[in-house]
Amino acid sequence: DGGITQSPKYLFRKEGQNVTLSCEQNLNHDAMYWYRQDPGQGLRLIYYSQIVNDFQKGDIAEGYSVSREKKESFPLTVTSAQKNPTAFYLCASSTTGDYGYTFGSGTRLTVV
Amino acid sequence: AQSVSQHNHHVILSEAASLELGCNYSYGGTVNLFWYVQYPGQHLQLLLKYFSGDPLVKGIKGFEAEFIKSKFSFNLRKPSVQWSDTAEYFCAVNGNTGGFKTIFGAGTRLFVKA
């Protein structure tokens, strides 16, 4: 079955460490996105990519970085510069011209 | 800037009651509108979407939404809810100049009492 795989499901890191969240899709979707979900705030866009080797900052990109070397993969790195990294991170994808998203199951990151 | 406002953060209903969740957006141009649902322990999934045409959109599981352009609204409705509709519901907007950026509302948690 086609879908989006995010790993790991839970991640614990010490403050000051960088951590990379994985997102892989086999839907042949061109566009991929990273959102952060916090209670009572909905989903906020971190980064998005429309094609390979290209990506744009979303509304809360500070302290995060991404790469898009393959169509299927869009990893997110949470750097030590992110002031409040503990959150639930969601990856999504869509086809060109259809902005309805397919979401992954998410990664819950806890920084201690 | 685009924004999405969902009127209620928490809604509690009894089974068979009618549901209407409010959603208003702020954007002056052409928009694509969505409702997503997140059932407990499951992925966010698309419930329904509006791109153009008939402003009354039907989605999965008996849900529908009506786009009222003059009111900048896209309210979600269901005539008779079931216990299995307990979930969090998100309204989302993508403007024609927003590219691939979709803005989400804060979500509404619905609890249906059996």
Structure notes:
The complex is a heterodimer of chains A (112) and B (114). By secondary structure, chain A is mainly β. Helices cover 0% and strands 52% of the residues of chain A. Chain A contains no helices and 11 strands. In chain A, the strands form 2 sheets. In chain A, strands 2, 4, 5, 6, 9, 10 and 11 form a 7-stranded mixed beta sheet that branches. Chain A is globular and about 40 Å long. Chain B has 114 residues and is an all-beta fold. Helices cover 0% and strands 54% of the residues of chain B. Chain B has no helices and 12 strands. Chain B has strands spanning 3-6, 10-14, 19-21, 23-26, 31-38, 44-50, 56-58, 64-68, 73-78, 87-95, 103-104, 108-113. In chain B, the strands form 3 sheets. In chain B, strands 2, 5, 6, 10, 11 and 12 form a 6-stranded mixed beta sheet that branches. A 4-stranded antiparallel beta sheet of chain B has the order 3-9-8-7, with no helix packed on it. A two-stranded antiparallel ribbon of chain B has the order 1-4. In chain B, strand 10 and strand 11 (103-104) form a beta hairpin. Chain B is globular, with a radius of gyration of 14 Å. The termini of chain B are far apart. The mean pLDDT of chain B is 92. Chains A and B meet through strand 4, strand 5, strand 9 and strand 10 of A and strand 5, strand 6 and strand 11 of B.
List the helices and strands and how they pair.
The complex is a heterodimer of chains A (112) and B (114).
Chain A: E1 4-7, E2 10-13, E3 19-25, E4 31-38, E5 42-51, E6 54-57, E7 64-66, E8 76-78, E9 87-94, E10 102-103, E11 107-111
Chain B: E1 3-6, E2 10-14, E3 19-21, E4 23-26, E5 31-38, E6 44-50, E7 56-58, E8 64-68, E9 73-78, E10 87-95, E11 103-104, E12 108-113
Parallel strand pairs in B: 2-12
Antiparallel strand pairs in B: 1-4, 3-9, 5-6, 5-10, 7-8, 8-9, 10-11, 10-12
The secondary structure category of chain A is mainly beta
Number of helices of chain B: 0
User: Largest interface here, residues on each chain?
Assistant: A-B, 24 and 22 residues
Arithmetic mean of pLDDT of chain B: 92
Kindly state the number of beta strands of chain A: 11
Low-confidence stretches of chain B: none
SS-based class of chain B: mainly beta
